[in-house]
Task: structure prediction
Amino acid sequence: MPVVEGAGVELAYDEAGAGPAVVLVHGMAADRAIWPPEIAGARTIAYDRRGYGESGAPEPYARTTVAEQAEDLAALVRALDAAPAVAAGADLGALVVLDVLKRHAGVLRAAVLIDPPVFQLVREALEPLAAERLMLEEALRDGGRERAVEAWLATRGAAAGERLTRARRDAGAFFADYGGQATLPLSRGDLRAIEVPVAVLDSGGAAAHARAASDAVARLLPAARRGGTEDVAVALAELLG
Result:
């Protein structure tokens, strides 16, 4: 298992194929195994974010920020001599990609964002987010962190199989991520200043408020294409040209 040094932690990654670099940034309650093993025609790099899978994390690990995660991603791309890469990120991973685009010029040249949770742009997200927090609090009381992660995945139709097993294992990282979602200071002006090509997609289980956030992000990014639930590999192939 190869590793590189992120922003103070070791990051485990897989690499396959040859061609332009594509870096895959998983979301919450997931790890690098969530992605296809290889994107056709690309040097495909998938890594475990800190606290997940085989990557390290500080001890104890209870909190993270999008900025911290973005420093990990930028460090990984540079360490692997992969810049400028095309990146794909899901939920919190999409925020990480956006922060790298915002603060680390030249590291990424295009991106696919799946369910970017930029909920500050979506007033109608307040009620479902409050309900989600209440659901997690109740699940924590009833069965602890593993039960809460399972409940969160169930709302997305993903509470089964290896995904669930791995998510339970990494429940601490999930809760660090969950609190970290709100740490990205991203304004409308910040989004308008990101000029690289971006495809904004929905996951199969995206709720209405998540789709609304994706709509808002796509409207503000100057070079965005608003997609649907198409395969991420198709969107990446378009960006790779």
